[in-house]
Specification:
Layout: H1 10-23, H2 33-40, H3 44-56, E1 60-62, E2 68-70, H4 72-95, H5 100-113, H6 116-127, H7 132-144
Helix pairs in contact: 1-2, 1-3, 1-4, 2-3, 4-5
The structure holds zinc ion.
Length: 149
């Protein structure tokens, strides 16, 4: 496992996520900053500012005002954020019945707060979710638990 020790802000994680998403279609060609601006609904100036941070951190490469590509570390980080987003969004929509637009916005907030370790444990939990007895026990415990626990 690669250690991602550069702790990016929420906004910068969203940039990496967007670049990863955009480059899913055009892996070799790279991404244009105008496409990132469009995707995140921000100005080109904001994109360029964020790109400088991401370049400095070693996640992004860009020829002088040219196409933007992710480094292997950037690919790993961006994919991780996007995977979390997709898991959260689909859980909110399909398991909880949350409105898709609300689910998308809230997934974009939650994806930055949840750790990889918790996500891994959550996925493992979902995989054994067929064990309904455990779920019933869990639900009973929540109801018994004191309010501020
Ligand atoms: Zn987000």
């Amino acid at each position: 496992m690669m250690i991602l020790d550069y702790d990016l802000s929420h906004a910068h994680e969203d940039y990496l996520e967007a670049i990863y998403l955009l480059s899913e279609d055009s892996v070799d060609e790279g991404v244009k900053s105008v496409d990132i601006a469009h995707q995140l609904n921000v100005s080109k100036a904001s994109v360029n500012k964020a790109l400088n941070v991401l370049k400095e951190a070693g996640y992004v490469e860009q020829e002088h005002y040219g196409k933007i590509t992710l480094t292997p570390e950037g690919i790993e980080y961006g994919k991780e954020v996007l995977d979390r987003h997709r898991l959260l969004r689909s859980f909110l929509i399909h398991q909880l019945g949350v409105d898709p637009e609300v689910a998308n916005d809230e997934a974009c907030e939650m994806e930055h707060a949840i750790s990889k370790d918790t996500v891994d444990k959550w996925i493992a939990y979902l995989r054994r979710c067929s064990d309904c007895e455990k779920n019933r026990e869990f639900l009973a415990k929540i109801q018994e638990a004191p309010e501020n626990n």
